[in-house]
Amino acid sequence: MxxxxxxxxxxxxxxxxxxxxxxxxxxxxxxxxxxxSPSARSLCLLEWGKVxxxxxxxxxxxHGREATELWGxxxxxxxxxxxxxxxxxxAVRLLGTSGGSFDFSGLDTVTVEAAIQCVSGGxxxxxxxxxxxVSLMLFVESLQVTIRAAMRQDEESHNLLMPLTETIxxxxxxxxxxxxxxxxxxxxGSVKDTASPELRRYREQVQSLESRxxxxxxxxxxNSDSEASLSEVSIxxxxxxxxxxGDKSLSFDGLLLSSGSDAGSMIEPIVAVPLxxxxxxxxxxxxxxxxxxxxxxxxxxxxxxxxxxxxLQETITLDKVTARAKYSIAYDxxxxxxxxxxxxxxxxxxxxxxxxxxxxxxxxxxKPWKVFIPNAFHPLLLQQHQENLRxxxxxxxxxxxxxxxxxxxxQDIAEEDQLASDLDSMKNRVSKLERNHPIPVxxxxxxxTTVLVITGPNTGGKTISLKTVGLASLMAKIGLYILAxxxxxxxxxxxxxxxxxxxxxxxxxxxxxxxxxxxIGAIRAQxxxxxxxxxxxxxAGTNPLEGAALGMSLLESFAEAGSFxxxxxxxxxxxxxxxxxxxxxxxxxxxxxxxxxxxxFRILWGIPGRSNxxxxxxxxxLPLDIIESARHLxxxxxxxxxxxxxDMEKFKQEYDEQLQQAQHYxxxxxxxxxxxxSI
Length: 679
Prior knowledge:
One of its GO terms (biological process) is mismatch repair. The chain is of the alpha/beta class. Among the domains are: 38-191 and 292-339, Orthogonal Bundle (MutS, DNA mismatch repair protein, Chain A, domain 3), CATH 1.10.1420; 197-283; 379-436; 610-678, no CATH class. 53% of the residues lie in helices and 14% in strands. The protein has helices at residues 38-45, 48-56, 62-69, 78-98, 109-120, 127-151, 155-170, 175-184, 197-223, 273-303, 305-330, 379-409, 413-435, 462-477, 512-526, 544-562, 613-619, 624-678; strands at residues 11-13, 24-26, 230-236, 239-244, 254-258, 265-269, 337-339, 342-344, 347-349, 369-376, 441-446, 451-455, 489-491, 495-499, 531-535, 565-570, 585-593, 598-605. The strands form six sheets. Strands 14-15-16-12-17-18 form a six-stranded mixed beta sheet, sandwiched between helices. A four-stranded antiparallel beta sheet has the order 3-4-6-5. Helix 4 crosses helix 11 (305-330). The protein is elongated.
């Protein structure tokens, strides 16, 4: 059964005595903006808040958006993460079968909450609040029908959906209360004439008096022979009067209600005073009759208040889950296999070998993986790309419609030519955006690896790769699909720590190097054997020799007991050698296209990065004597290492090509084997 109380619940039900109505309590998760903890700073560096806001945009209710925008990750246990992923999977299944039935945007949860607080506090409910309650109850009734239809499809759907929807299916929608509200309140929130015989009689009296007053005022204006300008009939404090703009005497006696040099004077004719008094009294009787009708309705709602609270709570919860599912579907995410590492005899055990799907774009030999995320996208880059593409396509559609409209009505040809030129330009931008799709990254980290060292040129995608892994871990932890291809395997991390970018602090008189060290020191003090640590350009910002030595020492410290997995980027070549003296280390590098002198943003696994500076300088036309001198200063050992790495890269590329070719052939061989065996 879905739990009603969680650390992120927006609403909670307080059990009070029968003489004290239950109150709806709003719980606001606090954002870690002002916190100075390494975990809070890491979330800011990873731009976790932007991802939460992107998910929140798929929520339909104000409470659902608020709860999702302020999503914390510190107190989410492994069991809770698994439950959240199961909920999201169930919501994805529901959306696939019901579609538009899960649109929460028509619900005004803020007004429903105000209605609950009003009734529980002893006040009389307003008409709009009562209609918001009706909308909630009718929506839940429709939701129950949709869910039951989806559960009847097959046993798998029933088992998948039951934990998420059991509570809302058990909720009772009081149709009698819905009818009572609809009999009394109109769609716009006003009290109907049929609410009571007294209300109908008093309203008819008001209409009669208003008609008599209008006739009287009209007669006075027509019969006036004064030079004063009697412009119009006006209402002042509910009393009918005449607006006078001249300064001449009037043909009737009256009371001055207000005056002004520009606005004129408001005069209540003496003959209208009795009718105005009677009208005020009739309106007071109408207000009292409306209040009596709303008061009786409030008593009926009070009897159902507990049930209404549950309906609101479960609707908001389902809206939050559906927002996660809609986000996961919109960006073509994959349900991850989230596992909790087990430590046996000081070695990690990831429980099972992870089978690589035959349809996966990243095919590797079967082996135990610590992290396996093929074709992983950075969620914010993918979101920005889709938003830009959607915006330009909308502009193309608008321009096309405008050209069509001008042709229909035969408007200015010159402007049409300019629009056609602009349209061609926009279409070119669409084509360019579609070609420049964000490049995914493969993450395939073996079970034995504790520290991964990534090397490569600037702007090659190293930092984005770190952020992608960090955000993927956080997304899985709160029940989001990971934006990658199937299959995905990722461990549950108790925390994600990051030192990325320039942490220079002028207020604390810290240099860039000191700022990084302070953050890394705090991370090292708080990280555990279940943490993910992301270090960008470790050892940078100081003397290269000292920076490399310090970087090596830091990474060895994290490898020994500092984290479950550490990913570090660096320009220090010495850090690449750690792999050959410590089995906990692994190397990777971002690929660089020397022909076009630009990075490909692909990660080459198991290969240390090599220096490209001298080769790039040669291709850019630097004088040959300078190039030769630089190579001489580098020495033959460095050149031989680079040549060896080049051979490794070449062998790696050939291996990938042959593997893809073999898989292509297997696709054609398998059907033949099946047919032969059947014979």
